[in-house]
Amino acid sequence: MSVMLLLPILLPALTAALAAKRPEKKLLIPLMVLELLLVLLCVFSAGELRVPCLPGLPLLLRLDTVGKIFSVLFAAMFLLAGIFGFEYLHERLGTYYVFYLLTLSAMLGLCYAGNLLTFYMFYECMTLLSFPLVLHEGTEASRRAAMKYLGYSLFGAALALFGFFVTAKSTGGAVFTPGGSLTGPVTPLLLAAGLAMIVGFGGKAGMLPLHDWLPTAHPEAPAPASAVLSGVITKGGVLGILRTVYYLFGAEALRGTYVQSTVLILALVTVFMGSMLAYKEKVLKKRLAYSTVSQVSYVIFGLLLLQPLGFAGAILQAVFHSVAKVCLFLCAGAFICKTGKTRVEQLYGIGRSMPLPLFCFAVTGLSLVGIPPFAGFVSKWYLALGSLAAFPALGWIGAAVLLLSALLTAGYLLSPVSKGFFPGEEFEYERISCGWCINLPLCALAAAALLLGLFPAQLLGWLSGLAAGIL
User: Fold this and answer.
1) Residue 173 has pLDDT above 80, yes or no
2) For burial by CB atoms within 10 Å, which of 23, 30, 151, 373 has the most?
3) Which residues contact 46 (CB under 8 A, 6 or more apart)?
4) With 0-12 CB in 10 A as exposed, 13-18 as middle and 19+ as buried, what is 246?
5) DSSP states of 43-72 as a string?
């Protein structure tokens, strides 16, 4: 079964080679569906693959529960955003889909990485291959945004590389081991390395102080690229933090240290700051980018609680945020594609012209706010419980910040919905139709936001077993 680990990584790369010559949806969509089926097949597989690289540091691919959850999520989101792109993009489809599919290949390599060397290799590939997606429009603004994205990403990766150098010897080659792989005492240098790695990977996830690339890059990238940048590629940083905290250091090594307290504070400040900036922002895609800054830091907060309920809430938030934010960016892309409108105030009455996209925007917006019975309510409930369980005296502070952020989220996501659907009786409009490449992904994601909220038991069962093995 070791060869099975290579197939989901290699197929997108081979599909990218075909996309360079024939960027046709009748060819690429079936191959992306096949990719998702291969990833699902790997969920029921086991094994590992070692390739000699450096002395004592092989390239290692391995299947575990974390990798299975994130790989299915990544493949599904790339498939839906990829389908959307065929109606949204009108030129240079070959160039776009080459880098789009190669980025997917790197993302799946992150999921299956069994040690830090392999993870870091795919992490850098993810950055370099997604860079052209931001650059795709070819304008001066997109070039500046792409360089900012690259600069922030490489600086964060350099912090992670410092941690890799420090921890490699103390963790037996930095192999990912449930519960941590430290073989000696936790020294001040190791703690500093751990903090550097978390902050470095947190930059990709949009955590302070390396968050500023998101509101710059998202408005300039094509909408389907913004969707995966926000909903999927930020989760590459989350995955790096998860592997560092629970598979290299271990919860016991970090619990009660300044590393835990520093990251918790940074995460909560980012949650509040991102929500406030999103509330004030008038450009829709930039508003959604600031929202991502806030919402992904929910995940980081849950992971650093080092507590089973908080861990479950963090992984649920990662999954549910990905579903909601990909849909929201695709809805914004539908408005841009069909009307050219990019600002919130321009969406007045858009629900009369484009009811289905705005309805899907409303459903996934409610999920992001955390309104039952949508998926976001479940993750935020577990995050609040985890905060109170981890810090009985001060846990209410975390829960209060999450609640305040939810209220701000309702303000900046639901106001376009109310104005879009209820512009007044005398509002004149013309119905605008969208093709199936737009409607199918939007409906699938909106349905997922509801169904995952109604039936989260299976995913919660997996996460309970996973938390028991690493905490």
Assistant:
1) no
2) 23
3) 1, 63
4) buried
5) HT---EEEEEEETTEEEEEE--HHHHHHHH
Do the beta carbons of residue 63 and residue 112 sit within 8 Å? Answer: yes
Please report, rounded to a whole number, the percentage of residues in the chain having pLDDT higher than 70.
100
Per-residue pLDDT at 438 = 96
Please check the confidence at residue 4 and state whether its pLDDT lies above 70.
yes
Which pLDDT score, from 0 to 100, does residue 45 have?
A: 81
Residue with token string 């999921």: 111
Q: Which two tokens stand for residue 4?
A: 């099975």
Burial (0-12, 13-18, 19+ Cβ within 10 Å), 67:
buried
Task: Considering only residues 301 and 169, tell me which one the structure prediction assigns the higher pLDDT.
Answer: 301
- The domain segmentation of the chain, as residue ranges, is 1-157+200-242, 255-471
Say yes or no to pLDDT of 1 above 60. Answer: no
How far from the centroid of its chain's Cα atoms is residue 245's Cα?
A: 18
Question: What are the start-end ranges of the E strands in 341-448?
Answer: none
- 28 CB contacts (<8 Å, ≥6 apart)? 15, 18, 19, 82, 97, 101
**What φ, ψ does residue 343 adopt, rounded to 5°?**
-105, 150
